[in-house]
Write a structure and sequence with these properties.
By secondary structure, the chain is α+β, with helices and mostly antiparallel strands. Helix 4 packs across helix 7, helix 10 packs antiparallel against helix 11 and helix 14 packs across helix 17. It has 17 helices and 13 strands. The protein is globular. A hairpin with a 2-residue loop joins strand 12 and strand 13.
């Protein structure tokens, strides 16, 4: 046990000599390549037999040779071929999760840009002791997720954000650092949410390219996706490839900690084969957890492969629960909508009826806060109005000395980084021309009253 809590140099029993050299084990990412390493004798081939790994160091990635099917249910009757590719099961992942260097890297990523927050500062004051206590709790099975801190944001609609304690966020990063390289090779290229090298701007570029190639598009999203994620279905999908009982126990605790967090926002529904108690099934992934974004990609990965491999849709882009499909025939896209809805019932999810529309590619595609066209991209007027309201609120808070120049600069730069994807050179010129902040309060009663109303809304949505 002590060797596990504070790992020493990596050495393989029965094969290491004093003049051995450390060789990195080939993994999926450069970050993971720093985590897993092994030693070999001089002259021994890289594919040679490795000896047992001692406790206290990260073992090589254990991969079984036999594959498993990703989906438990048969595909739709529209195709008789299997939509799921073979993916290997992974064992012996627990030592990699609780390895000291993995927890240390997770801690550094967790405190990035948040080191002066209160919970981060408290953990950072005795970070080494706190990290050792967290490692002992994980190894001994005593770890339990803490309570969430909830607050609401309105941009543009009201959302409930659940922030986990800093200690739990370190565990989330440690788990994702181990699992993400294993699942990354399974995800399709056109999934852009919470993935390295992806993002909103890459998704917009891809969607605009498909707009120029196809005459029609189908825009849809899933009704209340995060509040309606079924825990039992998600754990069943994860357990097919994570064949490590201790890691699955930790993942189960993380997922179950979100039960009831978004209950008031969930929309319980009955699906074929349900009984009267089906609406009491545990559901919900807290919006704000890094693991929630990763588990969402794992859950919807089967839908991605179904669309690409069963429905044979060449033009397809997904960002979280927002889906855009492109095609050559309008009637065919409506049939694809019906097949997609039938497939989602196996995950106990539904498409949004009012937001599912088929349009010609000559019209605007409203996607990820932008209005895409074949020859350009613009910001919707609603987005510009929200930014103007935010500026009025910042002016009011700056006049009352409730915020400083650094806060204003960070807010303006964040919006500019978001809006620069659109054709917004003239918009920026008009917005920055009259942008002034002063410590003196405005003399116009209308502007003061409007700012006070915005301030009261901000106070109502502040963290509890």
């Amino acid at each position: 046990m002590p060797s596990l809590l504070r790992p020493r140099a990596v050495r393989t029993l029965g094969q290491c000599q004093e003049d051995d050299t450390v060789r990195p084990l080939c993994t999926r990412t450069a970050e993971a390549r720093q985590m897993f390493c092994f030693r070999r004798r001089r002259g021994q081939s890289r594919s040679g037999e490795r000896g047992p790994v001692a406790i206290g160091r990260p073992p090589p990635l254990a991969i079984d040779s036999w594959p498993t099917q990703l989906a438990s249910a048969r595909p739709l009757a529209a195709s008789a071929t299997s939509w799921s590719k073979h993916m290997r099961s992974f064992r012996n992942l627990w030592p990699q999760v609780v390895w000291w260097n993995n927890l240390l890297q997770a801690y550094h990523k967790c405190r990035r840009r948040k080191r002066f927050k209160r919970d981060a500062t408290e953990f950072d004051f005795r970070w080494e002791s706190n990290l050792l206590d967290l490692q002992r709790a994980l190894v001994e099975g005593r770890y339990q997720p803490g309570p969430y801190r909830h607050f609401y944001i309105i941009d543009p609609k009201r959302r409930k954000i659940s922030a986990a304690p800093f200690r739990d966020r370190v565990v989330h990063h440690a788990v994702v650092r181990v699992l993400e390289p294993l699942y990354e090779r399974r995800f399709i290229y056109d999934s852009y949410a919470c993935r390295l090298g992806k993002g909103t701007h890459r998704a917009l570029d891809r969607a605009q390219g498909y707009l120029r190639r196809y005459p029609y598009f189908l825009k849809t999203d899933i009704v209340r996706f995060f509040p309606n994620v079924d825990h039992e279905i998600l754990l069943r999908l994860l357990s097919r490839h994570i064949q490590d009982p201790r890691l699955m126990d930790l993942v189960t605790r993380i997922i179950n900690s979100g039960d009831g967090v978004l209950r008031e926002e969930a929309t319980p529904s009955y699906f074929p084969g349900d009984d009267l108690l089906a609406v009491l099934r545990p559901t919900g992934l807290p919006i704000g957890n890094l693991t929630s974004q990763f588990f969402a990609n794992v859950l919807l990965d089967g839908i991605d492969h179904f669309i690409k491999e069963e429905l044979h849709i060449g033009g397809y882009v997904r960002y979280a629960d927002d889906l855009v499909l492109f095609g050559d025939d309008k009637a065919q896209l409506w049939q694809i909508r019906d097949a997609l809805q039938l497939r989602l019932t196996q995950l106990r999810l539904r498409l949004h009826e009012h937001k599912t529309q088929v349009h010609p590619s000559t019209s605007d595609l409203k996607f990820l806060g932008f209005a895409l066209k074949r020859d350009g991209c613009r910001l919707p007027q609603s987005s510009i109005q929200r930014f103007r309201r935010r500026v009025r609120l910042l002016r009011y808070q700056f006049a009352r000395r409730e915020c400083d120049c650094a806060t204003i600069q960070a807010s303006l730069q964040a919006w500019q980084a978001h809006a620069c994807r659109a054709n917004s050179a003239g918009l920026f010129r008009d917005l920055w021309r009259n942008l002034r902040f002063s410590r003196r309060r405005s003399s116009t009663s209308e502007s003061v009253g409007r700012a006070r109303r915005l301030h009261s809304v901000a106070n109502r949505t502040a963290p509890e």
